[in-house]
Amino acid sequence: MEDFQSAYQEEKARLDRTLEEIEKQLIALRSIPEYTGHDFTEQVLEASRQSEREQLERSFREPYFGRLDFGEQGKPGTPYYIGKLGVGDPGGKEPIVIDWRAPLASLFYSFTGGESASYEAPEGMIEGLVYLKRNVVIRKGILERVADTYNRDSEGPAVSDEFLVYRLGENKDNRLRDIVSTIQAEQDLIIRAAKNTALIIQGVAGSGKTTVALHRLAFLLYQYKEQITAERMIIFAPNHMFIDYISEVLPELGVGDIQQSTYSDWAAQILGLDTPPQDGSETLTHWFDVTNTKLGRLNDDELPGRFKGSLKFKGILDAFLENIESYCVPPLDFEPWEGAVLSHADILQWFEGEYRHYPVARRKERVLSRIHRWIEMELKKSPSLAAMKERKKKAQQREKAYAKKWPELEPVSLYQELFRAKKSMNAGFPDMSEYIPKSIWKETQTYLKKQTMKEEDLAALLYLFTCINEIEGHMTFDHVVIDEAQDFSPFQVLVLDRFVKGHSFTILGDLSQGIHYYKGVQSWDEMASLFRPEETAYFALTRSYRSTMEIIEFANEILKRGVGAELLAVPVFRSGDPVRLQSAVGDHRETSISQVLEVALSGSYRTAALLTRTLQEAKQLYEYLIDQGIEVHLIDGDKGQYAGGISVLPVYLSKGLEFDAVILTDVDTGHYGPGDAKLLYVGCTRALHELWLLHGDILPDYISTDTPENGL
Ligand SMILES: Nc1ncnc2c1ncn2[C@@H]1O[C@H](COP(=O)(O)OP(=O)(O)OP(=O)(O)O)[C@@H](O)[C@H]1O
């Protein structure tokens, strides 16, 4: 207690000094009048002062969160303070606060106890001793908590989890938060991994994948500031609501302007489509239909998403395009008017000779504009103005007709051509129908005729785009994050790689949460095979930070029994209430649900979710609760924003989100079949503190009934 008091006093004094210094710097900066003129250099200087002012203001509220006492070999320990942003000392050599991304700060995360410690600095490996690792909580400039997670002078060599457990026990608000003060060593390795690598991360539910990926972006921007820009980095997330849910982490880390998109939105923009095809609620309802027991047992050739996401489909497109150059140029001379002839041989020479370095769509464009210029030159040779006019009119019509004889070199038209019936295909294109499963070929042909497309077609369309067009500089990325990557297909990633410099990817997901069995991957080897071994690195995160031990153990049991999974989540030692099973059938179903909701929310929890099996049930429950005067939000897959509070949603839409309390309804064999263990696993692992399962008569056999029934 005495130690704690003195540590608190010591930190209080240090905080006062730091705040004083920050204030001094702020006053100095604010005293410089704001520049509003037109001189470019001055404008740049003003922008930099403005950003410095904003950073100092943020540092003033929370200057740092950690202290590390470190001494190089043979030297005594020096205290270093680590914050979300570094604060320089105009008068001294050492910064007052070290940015969490700086090399020395890595020790704060990677040091897990033991005799010596080292970190990689620009000048080489630095070795020494860690004397103290201390967490401090400062809110609005006030010191709230001091907790030592390692002290060389006290008993026990390892770094304690106490502060982490305290942090995890807090209730969450509506958005995902940064974790700079408690990044764990295994997460830090991922955050600081080298840029030009395709990182593939398999992480159990709640292992911090999304959070870590966002921190990695902030790190890369700091570490490679000369080579990369925020605008050229992108996070692909499963839907707009998820983008909204994660939207506060990067600004909190002082990083803005990173693009956040769904694959569909991005693809639509590249392809110039007016509306991006989405996996809307209609498609999801189809694939998550409880009554269709056949759905979970279809093979890849019966699942359009998996077939069109496979490298086999890419092979079909390659074969389709293989000879495209040979049938691009129409096999005839061009004659704009009688007597003026541009031979087929000349046109071919332009297309296959002079312009051969360009992609085909560009070559077509170049050849056609050269023909146009040739016409203009020829027109000038006309014997009279009247003859010239006459020729021009004719030439315009014939030029148009000639251009139409060229195949349309545009991704959507080519894709439609691929699915066209043999008899109506344009000359030269090979018939690939025998290589595409009949049902998929027919279905795709039908909707393409109606000028509609599905999300599953986007990888192929983008691939066609990259085969016939050049990828311009403004389309490329310095780094790409793919979240929920188990739902991405190898073909999607292969196409994306064409837009990414140096295969700089962070690909993260959890195969145990692969509930969209109709698309995505079943093994990470499918992704790794897209890159050379030296370009990839694989990480596994097995520790789960979100839920209590009771919830993790319960969810693990579902995976063990339901899918025979062996790689299970290891909980952080944070204990809570037991998972509760509660019968809620027939007439009592709805009243039980609202009673449980009341109990679950009687504490200090801020967010709760009612997870139903289907969208239809979510809608009904939502109506019922609204009628009861309870304020709830329906999440139906089409919403762009996450409102927090109490949410009602089908379990398959809960992926990626988390809630203080989760109530799963209708957990019985009527709603969850033998193939639905992963779906329930996803639902259960959304809960931070409390989990309730409301059920009918027979529970699925992968639910552990060791958990006692808890009457209300
Ligand atoms: N080192 C950490 N310190 C504190 N909290 C952490 C840490 N790592 C993760 N968390 C918390 O754990 C929760 C889960 O994190 P996140 O959503 O990033 O995990 P995930 O692996 O993407 O989850 P899922 O796949 O289940 O959606 C979040 O509340 C996050 O703040």
Briefly characterize the structure.
This protein has 712 residues and is of the alpha/beta class. Helices cover 38% and strands 16% of the residues.
- Mean pLDDT, all residues: 88
The helix/strand class is: alpha/beta
Terminal Cα separation, in Å? Answer: 41 Å
What is the number of helical segments per DSSP (H or I, 4+ residues)? 24
Cα-atom radius of gyration: 31 Å
Number of strands: 22
Strand content: 15-25%
Given as residue ranges, the uncertain stretches (5+ residues, pLDDT < 50) are none
Helicity, as a percent range:
25-40%
Largest sheet: 6 strands, mixed
Keywords: ATP-binding, Coiled coil, Helicase, Hydrolase, Nucleotide-binding
Protein name: DNA helicase
Binding site for ATP: 203-210
GO molecular function, one term: helicase activity
Can you walk through the features of this model?
- Keywords: ATP-binding, Coiled coil, Helicase, Hydrolase, Nucleotide-binding.
- It comes from Paenibacillus segetis.
- This protein is α/β, with parallel strands linked by helices and 712 residues long.
- 38% of the residues lie in helices and 16% in strands.
- The protein is built from 24 helices and 22 strands.
- The strands form five sheets. Strands 1, 2, 3, 4, 5 and 6 form a six-stranded mixed β-sheet that branches. It has a six-stranded parallel β-sheet with strand order 9-8-12-13-7-14.
- Helix 1 runs antiparallel to helix 2 (40-61), helix 14 (360-380) runs antiparallel to helix 15 (385-405) and helix 16 (411-418) packs across helix 18.
- The longest helix is centred in the first third of the chain and has 29 residues, at 2-30.
- It binds adenosine-5'-triphosphate.
- Adenosine-5'-triphosphate binds next to helix 4 and helix 6.
